TrEMBL record:
Pfam families: HATPase_c, PAS, sCache_3_2. Keywords: ATP-binding, Cell membrane, Kinase, Membrane, Nucleotide-binding, Phosphoprotein, Transferase, Transmembrane, Transmembrane helix, Two-component regulatory system. SMART domains: HATPase_c. Its EC number is 2.7.13.3. Residues 211-253 form the PAS domain. Residues 339-535 form the Histidine kinase domain. One of its GO terms (molecular function) is ATP binding. It comes from Spongisporangium articulatum. This is histidine kinase.
Amino acid sequence: MWWDPRRWSLARQVFALLTAAVLVLVTVAVATVLVQTRRTVTDAKRDEALAVAGSVAQSPDVLAALREPDPSAVLQPYAEAVRRRTGVSFVTIMTPAGIRYTHPNPNLIGQRFFGHTAPAVAGRDFTETYTGSLGPSVRAVVPVRDGGRVVALVSVGVTTRAVGREVRREVPALLAAGGLTLVVAGAGVWLLSRRLRRQTHGMSPPELTRLFEFYDAVLHSVREGLLIVDRDGTLRLANDEGRRLLGLSEADVGRPLRALDLPAPLLADLDPGPEAGPDAELIDVPRLTDERVLVVNRAAVRWQGRLLGHVVTLRDHTDLVQLSGELSTTRGLAEALRSQAHEAANRLHSVITLVELGQTERALEFATRELAAAQELTDQVVGGVRQPVLAALLLGKAAEAGERGVTLAFPDEFDVPDGAVDARDLVTVVGNLVDNGIEAALRGPGPRRVEVGAQLDDGRLRVRVANTGPALTPQDQDRMFARGWTTKDGDGHGLGLALVEQAVRRAGGVITVTSHEAGADDVSTTFEVDLPVRSAP
């Protein structure tokens, strides 16, 4: 309610507080100026009284009158004339003993002066504030000398009522200045409160507190990374998950995105720049960092038609991509086993038919040759690849390649100890390179072949995958590891080689590519991966 200040909006509370503060300050200022003005007027009247008293005391007419039998008859008109001419409240001439010769009230002539006279009798001029017959007054007392002897005293004063009248004449100007100051300050406070109301949307402090608490709780608890980037490309907000996914610290908030150590494609997603449309959006775009596969969504933020910046959400799909790769490998193995089962059934059927036709020796020769070929491949892979997951992957890929008309060959000796390299990284590298090699070989002339080899050399595992497909152009080699690059004519996503490059970089390895035009029986493109062995096998 309006009478409950706790429910007022922050703008209204600030307006009320500042208005009260301005009112108090202006009131104190006016009062201070009034006090100072009264002091100044009092000091001026004191100096004026001292000057008038000194002038009267030095007047030859006063000395001449004092020698007369009745000094009051001469001095009274003279004192009243001086009083009216100078505007003081009284001019009193008295004996050294304080008996008045003159006074504005003739009835008081001959009576004793109310006030101190001892310093003047001693020959010194002085001033004081004293309550006399005319009330409180500011007065000066000056001795009248005749040949060095004090023969009389002159007291000139201005009553405090007269001082008050002088001060009151200054009051309208002071009040006008104070009122003008109050109006100007009030207008400034009102404008400030309006601006504050727009910025706080008319919410009260409790509402702002609750909003901040909810906002902070959501930022810290949300499972997605949340970033807010302003129009200038400066990172204004990043929640805990967003900083974790991008490898940022709290100190990075408030810095331009271009100053952060992030991959160029990801920077382009976070800050589209002025060349992009104000409503440019991204929906579920995968991006690779050194450690993760992120899915990026970006939307423009507008308020009352004005572009404020962009809000970006990040989801970590690293585990999902790895699990998808493992699932793909498992499906490939299942397909390979199904193909092998189908081929085995065909071969068994051929053997049985040969036996039924009485061709026993030919049936035995056929079965022995097929068994030897399969056993040779298995022995070659299992014997050199002591990492079970990779061995299973290669056997499955060999069956898959054979079914698609590509020979998966192992011309080099295999030497892959178990545990030498992280199994996930190794499966990612070899599996995607073999898949890429099979796809490339299918686009080349026959015979189509993919060669795979891996050996330990001085604490490094060197993996080689080559294919007989078309040679890569220099332009392709420059951008082949970027997400989205593909040579497929269909719906390829172009993520395999990007994942390979990410896994190699994460493991601290190096990948090189050589490609050239080759003959029908020679490989044209070779991928060589050099990975450090993480522990002694």
